[in-house]
Amino acid sequence: MSNKFSAIWMEFIPNHDLGHHLSDASKSEVLDWPKRLQIIMGICKGLGFLHGREKPIRHLDLKPANILLDKDLTPKIADFGLSRIYNDNKTRLTKSSYGTVEFMPPEYQEFPFEISMKFDIFSLGATMIKIITGPEGNIKRDQTPGKEEYIKRVRTSAFPLYLDIHNMYVSLFIPSADYFLYYALHG
């Protein structure tokens, strides 16, 4: 008789997902600018790990609801149900639907489309915008404003989080998020 057994080890994540914090104004007060920066940097580090592997992993559904926050609000990328592993960095064609429309590059809504790292990079930029704007920034895809409108919206927000040092952080975050969105769309 063998003493071997299989087990799944899972980390307890007590602070829900990022989407929960961004949609509930009472919880969002916990996410001050330094915490938001920590979360953005953690997501970038996690995505860099996935994309930097010998066999890169494309998440294909990166969004606040798929980012869990531990006791220290450290982000953990979760829900790899749509993820794909490839032996190289080449682009692939697919006729299948992936991701959540709000965080999906526009050209990926037509079939066939190419699966590349750009898919996750666009989702990262869209997620960063969501982290920056908080609950007040919730908009529908067909109402998506341009970069200048995002900046104006964040700077004039009545949301208490932005009253102190938001101009400095917005000037740091918006260009980065804009770069990710531009890179994903134009290479």
Automatic annotation (TrEMBL):
<dbReference type="GO" id="GO:0004674">
    <property type="term" value="F:protein serine/threonine kinase activity"/>
</dbReference>
<protein>
    <recommendedName>
        <fullName>non-specific serine/threonine protein kinase</fullName>
        <ecNumber>2.7.11.1</ecNumber>
    </recommendedName>
</protein>
<dbReference type="Pfam" id="PF00069">
    <property type="entry name" value="Pkinase"/>
</dbReference>
<keyword id="KW-0547">Nucleotide-binding</keyword>
<dbReference type="GO" id="GO:0005524">
    <property type="term" value="F:ATP binding"/>
</dbReference>
<dbReference type="InterPro" id="IPR008271">
    <property type="entry name" value="Ser/Thr_kinase_AS"/>
</dbReference>
<keyword id="KW-0723">Serine/threonine-protein kinase</keyword>
<feature type="domain" description="Protein kinase">
    <location>
        <begin position="1"/>
        <end position="187"/>
    </location>
</feature>
<dbReference type="InterPro" id="IPR011009">
    <property type="entry name" value="Kinase-like_dom_sf"/>
</dbReference>
<dbReference type="InterPro" id="IPR000719">
    <property type="entry name" value="Prot_kinase_dom"/>
</dbReference>
<keyword id="KW-0418">Kinase</keyword>
<keyword id="KW-0808">Transferase</keyword>
<keyword id="KW-0067">ATP-binding</keyword>
